[in-house]
């Protein structure tokens, strides 16, 4: 713990290398996105929305259950490559292969067999992504114990993640799914999704290995799990103690509510863009490109604003503004104050709204990621053990599980409005406006209420700068009493030269 507390300030190169790893998470996230998977399976493959919702929910539930297990193993393992890197390296190839096969479902089989195939691939891919993401995220509090510097480190994480996800999404929409004279099928071209999956797999494989290798030299200065013989009861007791930290419970409760809203929104996003707003895939890709400045704004502003106003207050303000920004365009359309579909003002208005809302949301997620990292020391003071892996896994457990429920909710909304599934070759890809209006009237108030409740429960988060610094002092004091001097890493050779 003393080693972590005395870690020198990180340079730009280290932060960038750590942040680069989120490209893999983002690209895998695009490949796993409910927006694309749901549209592909319902509209292109022809599975019933309710079946697709159950498949996605099942895969997310299984993934959520195993995340804390992965986190616990990552917290306690001892190896020459430390606690985190063995899992990060081991995940690269399985993730890449699972992405390839997910987007290349077999032809000529029954819809039931396709549902089982998709479920198996989704479970495999989600578990392998967790095998990388949980240990990789858990590195943040170890690399940057300082209260404000870890916000800066995590902002790099979000920047690269959103940048990578943005670029890949633009390529998907503007290249693979484009609709023009030479590509008449557009987003209904089943083979195009397979070609996209191959590209995504290569990007994920390379970014995981590059980021893991770039942070490999810091292993010697990271906290090393002590050798302990724990009974199963003791292990569960420690995990339970970590999961019941009051500040973490506030974050998890917020994640439960926002996860349902996010799952519902992601499930309906592609349907809304294509059929509610009447956008083409090329325009959708262009909008993603023009909303990219939100990434830069969020990354720049999050550390500076949270330093000025403290993390919790800043996070709640920016999330509240982001919630309101997210409902404005659809609400204006429902009351007849938006231009008609086909107007060039539609994408302009949506881009402006998404830049504003996206920058605010990114600031909020960056800060809340730093707040979760602060729980690590708080829990270490209370329990005497470091459990970053369990904490980061737990923070994402309920959002994953509830995102599945949100996806199922969104799919039931499709069923309720009688959204047509599948499409015949050569048939016009048109949906009745009345169907899309019903869908908007259902989804808009539900999403707003869920997100507002998610924001409200974060009032109960308790850690601020003063309490965090007190936790660091307590850990340093405890380590100085219990650890012999010879056990501490010394000098640049042990700690690694900062970039």
Short summary:
This protein has helices spanning 2-5, 12-32, 34-45, 49-76, 85-102, 111-143, 149-176, 190-214, 232-243, 246-276, 281-290, 293-309, 311-334, 345-383, 388-416, 433-457, 465-482, 491-495.
Structure description:
It is built from 18 helices and no strands. The protein is globular. It has one domain: Growth Hormone, Chain: A (Up-down Bundle). Helix 10 packs parallel to helix 15 (388-416), helix 13 runs antiparallel to helix 16 and helix 14 runs antiparallel to helix 15 (388-416). The relative contact order is 0.17. The chain starts with a helix and ends with a helix. By secondary structure, the chain is mainly α. The model is unreliable at 1-7 and 484-499 (pLDDT under 50). Helices cover 76% and strands 0% of the residues.
- What is the CATH T-level topology? Growth Hormone, Chain: A
Overall form: globular
H/E element order: HHHHHHHHHHHHHHHHHH
Q: What is the CATH architecture term?
A: Up-down Bundle
Outline the biggest β-sheet.
none
Tell me the layout of helices and strands.
Elements: H1 2-5, H2 12-32, H3 34-45, H4 49-76, H5 85-102, H6 111-143, H7 149-176, H8 190-214, H9 232-243, H10 246-276, H11 281-290, H12 293-309, H13 311-334, H14 345-383, H15 388-416, H16 433-457, H17 465-482, H18 491-495
Helix pairs in contact: 2-6, 2-7, 2-8, 3-4, 3-10, 4-6, 4-15, 5-6, 5-8, 6-15, 7-11, 7-12, 7-14, 10-15, 10-16, 11-14, 12-13, 12-14, 13-14, 13-16, 14-15, 14-17
């Amino acid at each position: 713990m003393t080693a972590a507390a005395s870690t020198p300030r990180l340079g730009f190169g280290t932060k960038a290398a750590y942040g680069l790893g989120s490209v893999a998470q983002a690209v895998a996230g695009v490949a796993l996105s409910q927006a694309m998977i749901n549209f592909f399976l319902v509209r292109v493959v022809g599975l019933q929305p309710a079946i697709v919702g159950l498949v996605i929910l099942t895969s997310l539930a299984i993934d959520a259950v195993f995340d804390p297990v992965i986190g616990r193993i990552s917290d306690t393992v001892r190896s020459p490559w430390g606690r985190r890197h063995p899992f990060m390296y081991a995940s690269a190839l399985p993730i890449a292969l699972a992405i390839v096969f997910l987007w290349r479902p077999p032809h000529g089989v029954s819809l039931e067999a396709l549902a089982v195939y998709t479920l198996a691939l989704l479970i495999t891919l989600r578990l392998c992504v967790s095998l990388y993401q949980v240990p990789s995220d858990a590195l943040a509090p170890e690399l940057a114990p300082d209260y404000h510097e870890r916000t800066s480190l995590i902002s790099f994480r979000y920047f690269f993640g959103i940048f990578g996800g943005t670029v890949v999404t633009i390529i998907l929409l503007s290249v693979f799914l484009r609709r023009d004279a030479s590509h008449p099928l557009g987003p209904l071209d089943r083979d195009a999704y397979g070609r996209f999956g191959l590209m995504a797999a290569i990007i994920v494989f390379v970014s995981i290995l590059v980021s893991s290798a770039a942070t490999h030299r810091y292993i010697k200065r990271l906290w090393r799990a002590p050798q302990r013989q724990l009974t199963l009861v003791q292990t569960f007791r420690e995990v339970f103690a970590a999961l019941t930290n009051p500040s973490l419970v506030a974050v998890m409760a917020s994640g439960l509510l926002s996860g349902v809203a996010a799952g519902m929104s992601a499930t309906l996003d592609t349907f809304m863009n294509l059929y509610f707003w009447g956008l083409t895939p090329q325009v959708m890709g262009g909008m993603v490109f023009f909303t990219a400045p939100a990434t830069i704004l969020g990354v720049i502003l999050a550390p500076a604003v949270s330093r000025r106003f403290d993390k919790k207050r800043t996070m709640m303000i920016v999330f509240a503004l982001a919630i309101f920004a997210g409902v404005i365009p659809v609400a204006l359309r429902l009351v007849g104050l938006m231009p008609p579909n086909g107007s060039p003002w539609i994408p302009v208005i949506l881009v402006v709204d998404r830049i504003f809302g996206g920058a605010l949301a990114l600031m909020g997620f960056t800060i809340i990621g730093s707040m979760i990292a602060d729980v690590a020391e708080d829990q270490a003071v209370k329990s005497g053990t470091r459990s970053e892996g369990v904490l980061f896994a737990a923070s994402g457990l309920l959002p994953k599980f509830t995102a599945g429920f949100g996806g199922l909710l969104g799919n039931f909304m499709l069923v309720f409005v009688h959204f047509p599934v599948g499409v015949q070759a050569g048939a016009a890809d048109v949906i009745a406006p009345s169907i899309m209006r019903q869908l908007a009237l259902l989804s808009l108030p539900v999403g707003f209420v869920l997100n507002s409740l998610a924001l409200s429960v974060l009032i109960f988060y308790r850690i601020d700068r003063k309490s965090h610094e007190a936790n660091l002092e307590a850990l340093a004091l405890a380590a100085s009493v219990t650890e012999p001097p010879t056990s501490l890493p010394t000098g640049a050779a042990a700690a690694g030269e900062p970039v």
